[in-house]
Amino acid sequence: MPRGSTKELSKLIAALAVCAISACAQTSAAARLRSLTGQVSVLRDSSPWALSVGDAVQPSQIILSGPDGFAVFEVSDGSTFEVFPNSRVVFRDNRANWKDLLEVLIGRVKIHIQKLGGQPNYNKVRTPTAVISVRGTTFDVSVEDEDATTLVMVEEGLVAVQHSLLPRGDAKLLGAGEWIRVYKNQPLAAKTIDRGGVLRTTLRAAADAMYGILLRTSRDPGNTGGSGGSTPSSGPPASGGGVGDQGPGKPPPPPPPPPPPAKH
Hints:
With 264 residues, the chain is of the alpha+beta class. It has a single domain (28-219), classed as Jelly Rolls (Sandwich). It is built from two helices and 17 strands. The protein has a 17-stranded mixed beta sheet that branches. It is globular and about 70 Å long.
């Protein structure tokens, strides 16, 4: 084979290898949609594109959920994140570091970071007011209002929470059953223990309700999209009433039991 042809073949092989590596990196950086109910989309060229189960969300794409929208995404290391109704989330906006997993602009997400071989798996979740550092755990993040008040609730494991706007100082460490609020113009205060598990039970009930809708949707072959019903409230304690990001005393009590059936 002539030397010129050999050089051209080498360049072609090298180019194909670069393309393969790039495609592999892009795939491993993506999040795969595992389950869905209602309307969930990504922004492409400023327009929403509806997602279907199996679709991939690429880094820097914005995920939008409608009032009935709920979706579960999985990344390459097995970690998952759930996007609840009326949420706006940026996936891996920092291309220099895939460990910056999510930026929650509004709404609620629940995140499970899978440990790697039993070792910590460092990731970060950001909101306009908070930076949440995790090593392998399950936790909720809610951005509650126009001031980006952030509620962080840990179900298991350990997370570190810092203010993203004010001088950070030491991070607040939250363990299982603990929660904290981050207010835009107030420094971090004390974390709050969810005594009796009221808040944790409420948040878990909201997630279970969405899973129930998914299950019913998957069993109904004629249902290709939404849940067809109203979305239960996630029920975190109301904003305000606290100092700094400390919760307003004790979380609200659970609702009273339903009345007994009428006697005939």
